[in-house]
Design brief:
This protein has helices at about 45-50, 50-60, 95-105, 125-130, 195-210, 260-270, 285-290, 305-310, 315-330, 345-350, 360-365, 375-390, 420, 465-470, 475-490, 500-505, and strands spanning about 25-30, 60-65, 110-115, 145, 170, 175-180, 215, 275-280, 300, 335, 395, 495-500, 510-515, 520-525, 530, 535-540, 545-550, 550-555. Helices cover about 25% and strands about 15% of the residues. It contains 16 helices and 18 strands. Helix 12 (about 375-390) packs parallel to helix 15 (about 475-490). By secondary structure, it is an alpha/beta fold. The strands form four sheets. The chain has an eight-stranded parallel beta sheet with strand order 9-8-7-3-2-1-11-10. Strands 12-13-14-18-16 form a five-stranded antiparallel beta sheet.
Length: about 550
Amino acid sequence: MTAQHLGPDPGTAGRSSRDWWRQAVVYQVYPRSFADSDGDGIGDLPGVTSRLGHLADLGVDAVWLSPFYPSELADGGYDVADYRDVDPRLGTLDDFDRMVTEAHRLGLKVMVDIVPNHSSDQHIWFQEALRAGPGSAARERYVFREGKGAHGAEPPTDWVSCFGGPAWTRLPDGWWYLHLFAPQQPDFNWDNPEVRAEFRKTLRFWSDRGVDGFRVDVAHGLAKDLAAPLRDIGTVESYQPDDLPEDGSHPFWDRDEVHEIFRDWRKVFNEYDPPRIAVAEAWVRNSRRTAYATPQELGQAFNFDFLRASLHAGELRSSIDTALADARAAGATATWVLSNHDVIRHASRHGLPDGCDEEAWLLSDGQLPVVEREYGLRRALAATLLMLALPGSAYVYQGEELGLPEVADLPREALQDPVWTRSRGRSKGRDGCRVPLPWQREGSSYGFGSGVSWLPQPAGWGELSVEAQQGDPAAPLELYRAALRIRRGLLADEVLEWIGGPEAVADGLLHFRRTGGWECLTNLSDTARPLPDGELLLSSAPLSGDQLPPWTTAWVRTEG
């Protein structure tokens, strides 16, 4: 697949320092799997700093770091023991400061994860709550309740953890505490003013160290209806956003009261110049996502519909239209993402048949069915070039620029995601998208570090490395570099104009025009489609004359 760059280098578009995020490309780093500086098998902050040049060369605008805080790793770092420090295995605060300084020197903004729904059970507050006992002020920072039934032996409610099993764990004193995720992740009580003050302090702590923005984990879960008696909801093993009530009345997901919290956070963000930005991870109905993204709250919210959509033109166009309309309604900008640390990498996901049970595929070690790598990668790159042409911010997950597939055949004994154990083997979990990156063709961990890596890398991983793809015009890495360089020069406003009506969509074609006289065409069919007259800027696969081949996206300058 060749990156077609036939026009002149378009240069760099100027942007206000206050609205840099509106059409930015943000690169997500999962620190434990990015680069290991000391050979212990775990990625770290000095490793991130050593590889920031790769991100600058790639052409992204910002780097977002998944949690690097002290943690027992019950959930890959999302069980935070100290919100204002660095895990010693990943470095120090001085290492963090050096990373921010180097990122800013290279022109990269820095975003960090903030995890406000729950802490680690090793957090000083939770340990104090355990010692203090029932009825104490320390326990009011979390959610403790007496159980039901004889001697309080049954959980307070039928609520279920996102990782499987009850959302409550009983202590030796007979009381239960709430954890919507793993038992090692007790939920905060956001009705408690101490909790609110503590997170304001944390936001300022990182902002004062030069952090430009925050990704807010489980943003829709903070506010809970804790009025007695707590409400049962009917046991469910999982939920979909559209299952949630439209009126914000669920006892713990997407309650209206959560927006008061984020309006308070916005006051903190606006203390800085430029204001700090944030993006919500909010798995909620489209109609309710806009509230998180308003300028009075976080400013952005992830659009997961686009990630979950199949590569059908009608479904994708509907997802795009909804996201753009929602962003306009919020006074925000749309966000686009195809992969992250929680989902199957899209180079594999888009190689699976429509309707494939992804969990069953993982449990088969990627054998039922076997993914055609070239087919999946071709479709993934077409989707990527479409995403990068859309108005708004694009979030890119580490390694997708290398076309990395999901490592579906990790041995059971190597799995570390709590989903695997909590589900009792019914779900393999998310480790397959977290396998450490290959930087070089050779070495014990293909340049990730001097030793082995914390998750095993597949044989042949080195042939997908940065070293192997560097300078190869047919490589995904060079397509990403070309796309980000050209995109930077093409961006103007956030307007999109569709070309072609329902008949084009029925034929599998998505075709739109952006301000500045350029167009994006994506052929999501098995039949070639004609290209418009103009100068070809880039295509996700080699073209055939004036035809756009199947499963290919092209950018064409048609004016000027």
